[in-house]
């Protein structure tokens, strides 16, 4: 049985990193590899399994939207299209993720690329006359782009929130809406990711549960849930008060800084 404090630390890392443009899977992979001594492939599976805490955070924080989703046709269509495209793109990528991790694949590289893309987008927006738009102005083709971006996050090192938020920012969506609807799209996608993990990685999950114990896993998930609630609230307040290009610069800088640490 491993130290309970180590599992809670991993839960806190999950709770913070899930909502930032840094791959939570990679952060949990690195931390569980060093703190728990897990094999890289098993640590990656554990990272996906830990998303149960983050799902809880999103369900609690956006409970009104979740309850009213079937009354809001625009939101329902958005979630259905994004989730469908995410599954089509993401499931095959998840299946090959073990092979990628077994070879010379560095998960810091995708974060580095995303960071620079965000900063370039911020510079473009800062010096252009592009007007931001509301989520309600998006079309089906925009939903498909968001779903495709979210599906790519099945790859190790690719941040789900980073991909979806940045895609919406590229589409000119105002920051507050970009964060909010990115996080809402996370809920069905993450439920599917946990289901896919259970389906394709049963042995890895069994190993982690036997190592950490049921109590340890629950403690880590609760830590991720509580930390996630705090992080979502802080980020939405930040997005509401900032211009879109400032959000791009900050998210890009965070992604680059974390990616450089991963590349060391």
Overview of this protein structure:
The structure is a single chain. This protein has helices spanning 4-17, 24-36, 40-49, 51-61, 63-67, 73-102, 108-126, 140-152, 160-170, 175-200, 202-241, 244-263. With 264 residues, it is mainly alpha-helical. It has one domain (4-263). It is globular and about 50 Å long. It starts with a helix and ends with a helix. The model has no long low-confidence stretch (mean pLDDT 84).
User: Which band does the percent of strand residues land in?
Assistant: under 5%
Radius of gyration: 18 Å
> Can you tell me the number of structural domains?
1
Secondary structure tally: strands:
0
- Secondary structural class: mainly alpha
- Kindly report how far apart the N and C termini lie: 30 Å
Provide a concise account of the structure shown.
The protein has one domain (4-263). It starts with a helix and ends with a helix. The longest helix has 40 residues, at 202-241.
List the defining traits of the structure above.
single chain, 264 residues, mainly alpha, 80% helix, globular
List the helices and strands and how they pair.
Elements: H1 4-17, H2 24-36, H3 40-49, H4 51-61, H5 63-67, H6 73-102, H7 108-126, H8 140-152, H9 160-170, H10 175-200, H11 202-241, H12 244-263
Helix pairs in contact: 1-2, 1-11, 2-3, 3-11, 4-10, 4-11, 6-8, 6-10, 7-12, 8-9, 9-10, 10-11
């Amino acid at each position: 049985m491993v130290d309970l404090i180590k599992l809670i630390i991993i839960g806190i890392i999950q709770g913070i990193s899930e909502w930032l443009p840094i791959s939570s899977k990679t952060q949990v992979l690195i931390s569980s590899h060093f703190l728990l001594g897990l094999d890289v492939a098993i640590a990656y599976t554990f990272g996906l399994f830990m998303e149960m805490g983050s799902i809880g955070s999103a369900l609690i924080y956006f409970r009104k939207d979740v309850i009213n989703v079937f009354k809001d046709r625009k939101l329902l269509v958005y979630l259905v299209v994004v989730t469908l495209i995410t599954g089509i793109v993401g499931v095959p990528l998840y299946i090959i993720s073990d092979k990628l991790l077994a070879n010379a694949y560095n998960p810091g590289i995708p974060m580095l690329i995303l960071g620079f893309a965000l900063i370039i987008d911020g510079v473009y927006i800062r010096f252009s006359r592009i007007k931001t738009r509301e989520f309600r102005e998006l079309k089906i083709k925009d939903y498909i782009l968001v779903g495709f971006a979210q599906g790519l996050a099945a790859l190790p090192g690719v941040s789900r929130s980073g991909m979806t938020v940045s895609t919406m920012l590229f589409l000119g969506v105002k920051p507050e809406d970009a964060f909010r609807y990115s996080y809402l799209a996370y809920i069905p996608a993450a439920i599917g990711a946990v289901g896919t993990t259970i389906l394709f990685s049963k042995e890895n999950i069994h190993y982690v549960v036997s190592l950490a114990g049921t109590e340890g896993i629950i403690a880590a998930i609760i830590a991720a849930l509580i930390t996630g609630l705090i992080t979502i609230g802080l980020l939405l307040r930040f997005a509401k008060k900032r211009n879109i290009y400032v959000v791009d610069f900050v998210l890009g800088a965070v992604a680059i800084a974390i990616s450089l640490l991963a590349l060391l």
